[in-house]
Amino acid sequence: MLLDTASLYFRAYFGVPESVRAPDGTPVNAVRGLLDFIARLVTDHRPDALVACTDADWRPAWRVELIPSYKAHRVEEEVGGGPDVEETPDTLSPQVPVIDAVLDALGIARVGVAGYEADDVIGTLATRSPGPCDIVTGDRDLFQLVDDGRSVRVLYPRKGVGDCDLITEEAVRERYGVPADRYADFAALRGDPSDGLPGVKGIGEKTAAQLLTEFGDLDGVRAAATDPMSSLTPARRRNLLAASDYLDVAPRVVRVATDLSLELTDPTLPRVPRDPAALAELDARWGLGGSLQRVLRTLDR
């Protein structure tokens, strides 16, 4: 099981009241919410291995170089320059190091790769996985990894992780009208305002699916745009040709990496904490309470 960790702790932060606090009054709603999510996921799905995949770089420079608008609307206003900082609620940012420390003390594998997003770590680990693999994320971009033949699927939370849509190849086709291995092409054509991807003018989900069904893939769609005998309307042909520069680079931005060089500690789901003393200190400092106890009981089954 591969966790899109940031996706889950953002969901936990907004789903658990900020009144959930440490003894000193510091909010720990994202920490405790994420622990509750892990307990529920392990209880419901009993994975043999669990990896918390993290954003070592939430807005990689190489993606921004290709499409400058990539996630630009999420960048905090900077004072004095420096690397881009993701706009994050003031009471969430301090909880992220606590989450990291708790996962490490529990012995849950945590992996990030410099210059890449959690999506890319997930793509690499899912591609390497020798057996069934569940990806837990609220990010539709990871639908491109779904592969029934290799039993790679996405658990897509509706609210909490106890109520997830199971995304298989059939589910991708039913939702979007394209096979999972064409989802990245579909997303490039359609665009995605949440990631700052403009897409092609006049092409939404329905049209993107129609074009890929008719012409096979993005290369086929672009070839049709240069073919005066193709069935494309003049307006659609003009819009595709006008978007040529964007379409030259969009697939590289949208497609997750599947070949990262990464170091992965033992991903086996721990039965007991790796560092009980550190975990006890974290519990006392941050008041992890029933959320931590639920994880410990779940792991000990």
Automatic annotation (TrEMBL):
Keyword terms, alphabetized: DNA-binding, Exonuclease, Hydrolase, Nuclease
Domain 5'-3' exonuclease: 1-272
Gene Ontology terms, MF aspect: 5'-3' exonuclease activity; 5'-flap endonuclease activity; DNA binding
Record InterPro entries: 5-3_exonucl_a-hlix_arch_N (IPR020046), 5-3_exonuclease (IPR002421), 5-3_exonuclease_C_sf (IPR036279), DNA_polI_H3TH (IPR020045), FEN (IPR038969), HhH2 (IPR008918), PIN-like_dom_sf (IPR029060)
SUPFAM superfamilies: 5' to 3' exonuclease, C-terminal subdomain (SSF47807), PIN domain-like (SSF88723)
UniProt GO BP: DNA replication, Okazaki fragment processing
Source superkingdom: Bacteria
Pfam family, one: 5_3_exonuc_N
Function: 5'-3' exonuclease acting preferentially on double-stranded DNA.
Protein name per Swiss-Prot or TrEMBL: 5'-3' exonuclease
Lineage of the organism: Bacteria, Bacillati, Actinomycetota, Actinomycetes, Kitasatosporales
